[in-house]
Amino acid sequence: MIIQKSSNPRISSFDPTSFSFGNTFIDHMIICEYNNGKWGDLQLVPYGPIGFTPAMMGVNYGQACFEGMKAYKDKDGKVFLFRPEKNAERINKSAKRLAIPEIPKEIFMEGLKTLVDIDRDWIPHGEGMSLYIRPLLFATEEALKARVSEKYLFAIVATPAKSYYAAPVSVKISDHYSRSANGGVGFAKAAGNYAASFYPTQLAIEEGYDQIIWTDDSTHEYFEESGTMNVFVRINDTIYTPKTSEKILDGVTRDSFLQLAKRRNLEVVVGDVKVSDVIAAQRNETLKEVWGVGTAVVTSIFEALGYNDEHLLLPKLSEEESFAAMLKKDLTDIQTNQAEDPFGWRVLVEEQVYDL
Amino acid sequence: MIIQKSSNPRISSFDPTSFSFGNTFIDHMIICEYNNGKWGDLQLVPYGPIGFTPAMMGVNYGQACFEGMKAYKDKDGKVFLFRPEKNAERINKSAKRLAIPEIPKEIFMEGLKTLVDIDRDWIPHGEGMSLYIRPLLFATEEALKARVSEKYLFAIVATPAKSYYAAPVSVKISDHYSRSANGGVGFAKAAGNYAASFYPTQLAIEEGYDQIIWTDDSTHEYFEESGTMNVFVRINDTIYTPKTSEKILDGVTRDSFLQLAKRRNLEVVVGDVKVSDVIAAQRNETLKEVWGVGTAVVTSIFEALGYNDEHLLLPKLSEEESFAAMLKKDLTDIQTNQAEDPFGWRVLVEEQVYDL
């Protein structure tokens, strides 16, 4: 591994009590180039621009995928990653579907740990605080041919993070737009999936909603995801969530919620979630909660569903009554080293793991 | 418009009889930045890299779309564009669906004509020769938030072009993978649509095919597109092509073929093209031709269809018998100023249209 530390670090000007999420970047980044059929040297370098012409295939043909993950700092200053091997596996599932060469897990993990270790002072400590980490893979060959690229970049960049959403949100159940096709790339964290969701989301916002519950493109009768999150529904005391498929992301937070719910002996059904069943439950008052989960937001609780022209309110549960709030606390307590970790999910980031 | 000509042009080393399509770039490119809610100065600059970090939203969230078009040089050295206003309109349809700000048509056309004029010496003359031009729009803000970007780049880059495919190709009728969802972005030249097609195409190639005829994702009973082209079928002497929709690109070559077919009083049906009808026609020997059309390839003639596990051969028609070959010649004769242009499709690129 090649380490080139910044000669002009910005950390001294970083105020962990006041920063902008998403565009405050830590001092370094990880890069590794793929060329001539193989991955080159893993490098830690100062965060900054790399030269690409507008013929770069990544922006022409969308051959690009990413991961989202976080590092947490506990009260003693120890730093932990959360189930990082899941992200290493998933970026390669995405890569395979997009015909991008897989990044070896060792390169992914070494780059990740080195970056987080060297820039550990950028990780804020406290309620909802973390370092949001973005590994990504994208095509860098400069060529105007709609074919698989011969050059790629693996990179990891990161930004300090606070809680994403504060208030409960209203979500519209999609009756026209969709985010994934049968035989498509919905299960992958493919760059193009996100761009495709923006315009329908803008329309939903104009209608007074915050985001969209995506439904299947053929019938709009089944829940798929919500915004950029997996979706959970609670009817009476049973939790329902769609099973993963080629259309639905295999979310790390989703999987963790399922395991935490089982540990609490909650009844969980993983399978088809029918729009009509959810609406019927709202009408007969057995629908207790609907929420989204994802790395960035952890949990987003919904206060209303838009269904055709109706605005259907959901119950306001207390922190004690809410399964969503309870499971979120179970999860974040493990992530932030405030609870035992019987699952072995936390991964300590050792100090000075790199050779200088 | 700001013109900054290359101080180190490469044109003297360009050999129009021997070059590599797609990665031989002309000396200049057009760029125009969008920021603070508006498009800035249109600029012609030397082709080359621009600095982006891996947090650039275009490669993270796929907010990117493009056009493909060509300039042709006639025997007298005059240079023509072909229906460029169609591309200016379509890039904005793509942009709208991807929540990218539209590029004003005047900026698009001025940039296009200036670039082609200044680099006209790069345009090869001769059978199948042209300059392939790539206008594109992509998100350039550096931020790790899955939301609409606030900064964009409009760019035009170009590469000299020869004929794309030489030989007839075999195509597999997709029975699992698909390129577009109902309520999705299939009609747009969205970057992500192309990446999503690569892996299924690789699998088809492993089965001995060259590309895929995409079918609807719900039933796989209807033709949509073929590879990156619109698809035409001829049964007896009637031409069929799918109607455009939110799943099917409104191709300029497709539209031109339809108008040329009508001029020749050929019977044309624009509507659903059922896989089962095409297969039945192949079996009863009324299926005469199946071909794809697009700017890059103009026409790609198919010699065989893969359907489930069958390899169904198509007739080998002579140039005189083939509607595809006839319409291709009609089109390229107009494009290259070898025939009258009753449609008003050719647009002359004047010399010295720019102010220095």
From TrEMBL, chains A, B:
Catalyzed reactions: L-leucine + 2-oxoglutarate = 4-methyl-2-oxopentanoate + L-glutamate; L-valine + 2-oxoglutarate = 3-methyl-2-oxobutanoate + L-glutamate; L-isoleucine + 2-oxoglutarate = (S)-3-methyl-2-oxopentanoate + L-glutamate
Pfam families: Aminotran_4
CDD domains membership: BCAT_beta_family
Entries under PROSITE patterns matching the protein: AA_TRANSFER_CLASS_4
GO molecular function terms attached to this record: L-isoleucine-2-oxoglutarate transaminase activity; L-leucine-2-oxoglutarate transaminase activity; L-valine-2-oxoglutarate transaminase activity
UniProt keyword Metal-binding, yes or no: no
SUPFAM superfamilies associated with the record: D-aminoacid aminotransferase-like PLP-dependent enzymes
Keyword Secreted: no
Function: Acts on leucine, isoleucine and valine.
Record family assignment: Belongs to the class-IV pyridoxal-phosphate-dependent aminotransferase family.
Record-given protein name: Branched-chain-amino-acid aminotransferase
Source species: Epilithonimonas bovis DSM 19482
Taxonomic path: Bacteria, Pseudomonadati, Bacteroidota, Flavobacteriia, Flavobacteriales
